């Protein structure tokens, strides 16, 4: 017999959260790692070869988080822009460290070919708490729209505004983790007073293409490169990954802009969201970072040929 899951420990079933419940949730979140030690120190080291800029500051209580971007030093007005984002969901570790690793190891290879704009950790408060939401229990990756309720998303939108029309490629680095099913989806159901419907966690890497402007050959080029580093998620028995039909090996589609997703924030011809599975018995943290790096390199290599 199917058992209903236990109620989420915050809020009243059937009633959306108000400020009291959001405050109760926030009080339970504990700092587990350091944005300064893990991210800012690496960015500072990269400053000798790249331009670094602060594009905003996130203030949560007495905590201050500078929002940082890394840019090509040889920025040229006639070159296309490649936008790389990580840590939109702060708990998705390889998105942050994969972006930084790409800059450290490979960004110089593209000097004079594209302008790189990299925001490696969009949600630093959530990075430190290893959480999906920001401090107000808002998902930044559903908030990339005018009048955004997420400060993190609004700041990134402002950063990108001046180059938005010139972005050729935007690759947004994410993970799908076991905690999505254990914690984040139940919390979302409780917050919004909706039924919790288990979805399952795919074992492996996959991509999310833009259903409004799909680029299947581009997506497959990225999949082929990543498959040399880690395994690709298979479709489930329904031919789906996380409830969406698999349209090609390791690829599903969302209406990126309509949903307010980070990857839909520009009019880039080429867009994709990576999804690494760090909880797999077949993958190490190093492989997860390497998969993100492989995806970024393959994406840039493809668009340089097919622009």
What does it look like?
The structure is a single chain. With 307 residues, the chain is an alpha/beta fold. The protein has one domain: Zn peptidases (Aminopeptidase). The protein is 32% helix and 19% strand. It has 8 helices and 10 strands. The protein has helices spanning 19-28, 35-46, 93-105, 124-129, 151-160, 178-192, 216-226, 285-306, and strands at 51-60, 63-71, 81-86, 115-119, 167-175, 206-210, 240-241, 244-245, 251-254, 270-276. The strands form 2 sheets. It has an 8-stranded mixed beta sheet with strand order 1-2-4-3-5-10-6-9, sandwiched between helices. A two-stranded antiparallel sheet has the order 7-8. Helix 2 runs parallel beside helix 3, helix 3 (93-105) crosses helix 8 and helix 7 runs antiparallel to helix 8. It is globular and about 55 Å long. The N and C termini lie far apart (55 Å). InterPro entries: AstE_AspA_cat, Peptidase_M14. Residues 31-307 form the Peptidase M14 domain. Its cofactor is Zn(2+). This is M14 family metallocarboxypeptidase.
In short:
The chain is of the alpha/beta class and 307 residues long. The chain has helices spanning 19-28, 35-46, 93-105, 124-129, 151-160, 178-192, 216-226, 285-306, and strands spanning 51-60, 63-71, 81-86, 115-119, 167-175, 206-210, 240-241, 244-245, 251-254, 270-276. It has one domain (19-306): Aminopeptidase (3-Layer(aba) Sandwich), CATH 3.40.630.
